[in-house]
Amino acid sequence: MPPAPTPEPARSAPSTGEQATIGKGLFIKGEITGSESLYIDGKVDGSINLPGNRVTVGRNGQVAASISAREIVVLGKVRGNITATDRVDIRAEGALTGDVAAARISIEDGAFFKGGIDIRKPDAKAEAKANTAAPAAAAAPEPAKAVTA
């Protein structure tokens, strides 16, 4: 039995190959988290958090949720704020009402979008941490010098 758990972590590590589907006849209310990509053709109400993965809202998909993922593709209807570490794609059939925060965004002709856009650099979090740490480090020696003097 020990060999069985070994393939599971190996299988779940490449998250790009696996994709779960919420079909047309399904309605999910609550929080969706996980480590694989998701295709939504049904209705979702709540929040979706799939870091490092892709969330695709299909043509029949209706989502009233905040979405956080690496890549988000909208072909259906989304109402809520979305955050992507890489890109957001709103296709011609898609409709998005809410704010977008992403490194890249694409809105095709014919798509509906109402909200704000915040374009973030891919390393914005790392830069923010470095900037907040640098003033604190610089401020610490100055009081030491003031006390010594």
Molecular structure report:
With 149 residues, the protein is α/β, with parallel strands linked by helices. The chain has one domain (7-121). The protein is built from 3 helices and 12 strands; from the N terminus they run αββββββββββββαα. It has helices at residues 7-12, 124-139, 141-148, and strands at residues 19-22, 27-33, 37-40, 43-57, 62-74, 77-79, 82-90, 95-97, 100-102, 104-107, 112-114, 117-119. Strands 1, 2, 3, 4, 5, 6, 7, 8, 9, 10, 11 and 12 form a 12-stranded parallel sheet that branches.
Set down the secondary structure blueprint.
Elements: H1 7-12, E1 19-22, E2 27-33, E3 37-40, E4 43-57, E5 62-74, E6 77-79, E7 82-90, E8 95-97, E9 100-102, E10 104-107, E11 112-114, E12 117-119, H2 124-139, H3 141-148
Parallel strand pairs: 1-3, 2-4, 3-4, 4-5, 5-6, 5-7, 6-8, 7-9, 7-10, 8-11, 9-12
